[in-house]
Write a structure and sequence with these properties.
The structure is a single chain. 21% of the residues lie in helices and 23% in strands. It contains five helices and 13 strands. The strands form three sheets. A nine-stranded mixed β-sheet has the order 3-4-2-1-5-6-7-13-8, sandwiched between helices. Strands 9-12 form a two-stranded antiparallel ribbon. Helix 3 links the parallel strand 5 and strand 6. 40% of the residues are buried.
């Protein structure tokens, strides 16, 4: 295919191995790559924006290979995409990639994911966008993940990327010889046990550390064809999970199930 203009971001920061692996792999395929990502880790920031302080961006080309332009930004992942599209890029990108994230972005965890938020910001701007994650915080081999991500993105682009489609790709932490077939998946309903650890600092003051573990639920899933596996069960079976997402959060249940609004009963006088 013809070379693409690709914007790459993440939430793990400019020094993360995952983003360097993805950016360099895309450049080696002949694509024009620009990186704009946080200057330090900003995981789990969701779609937060920086409104009360200035956003700074410094060049970081030396962290990547020749011909890749890169910036480390003081803002959130969503800030990075906004800044790139409105100030830093000379041309509108053909594709936005976010990742490769160090750790999974499965199920309803996407609502707090900075990785998914960066891709979602691209989707909101009408640009084909894909978030890609390794479903392990300890797996450091990114070659297979960037190959799968780039193959999917190039393939979908040649077949016309649907409007408002955000693709969320999770790769199981295993070698290619162990990996199963890729599948479309539904978002799981993620729940956590013991979400906070209560501790005491040296001065005797109480503080809390978020330390919850995800419940391994292979069955619960939301919208989508019933024969599609949940993204959690797909990863558990060592298959890449590809979930189609859209920004529209409007209620999809029956309007009849909504409570009736009785006129005149909601004002306190």
């Amino acid at each position: 295919m013809n070379p693409l203009k690709i914007l790459i971001s993440n939430d793990d920061g400019v020094f993360a191995e995952g983003i360097r692996s993805l950016a360099i792999a895309a450049a080696h395929r002949g694509h024009k790559v620009t990186v704009v990502c946080p200057d330090q880790e900003r995981s789990a920031t969701g779609h937060g924006l920086t409104l009360q302080s200035p956003i700074r961006a410094e060049r970081a080309d030396e962290l990547f290979c020749k011909d890749i332009k890169a910036w480390g930004c003081s803002g959130t992942p969503a800030d990075c995409i906004k800044l790139a599209l409105n100030e830093l890029l000379d041309e509108r990108p053909d594709l936005i990639l976010s990742g490769i994230n160090h750790g999974p972005n499965l199920g309803t965890d996407i609502f707090c994911s900075g990785t998914v938020a960066a891709a979602l910001e691209g989707t909101l701007e009408g640009i084909p966008s894909l978030a890609v994650s390794i479903a392990s915080f300890n797996w450091k081999k990114f070659d297979l993940a960037h190959e799968i991500a780039l193959n999917i993105a190039e393939n979908v682009l040649t077949k016309k990327w649907p409007q408002n489609l955000l693709l969320n790709l999770n790769i199981p932490p295993c070698e290619s010889s162990e990996m199963g077939e890729i599948s479309w998946t539904r978002l799981s309903i993620r729940q956590y046990q013991e979400q906070f650890s209560k501790r005491t600092d040296p001065k005797g003051n109480t503080y809390y550390w978020m330390a919850g573990e995800a419940v391994k639920d292979l069955e619960s899933a939301g919208e989508g064809p019933s024969h599609w596996p949940s993204d959690v069960s797909q990863i558990d079976a060592k298959g890449p999970s590809l979930t189609p997402i859209q920004p529209d959060l409007f209620w999809k249940g029956s309007i009849k199930d909504l409570p009736i609004l009785e006129k005149g009963n909601y004002l306190t006088r």
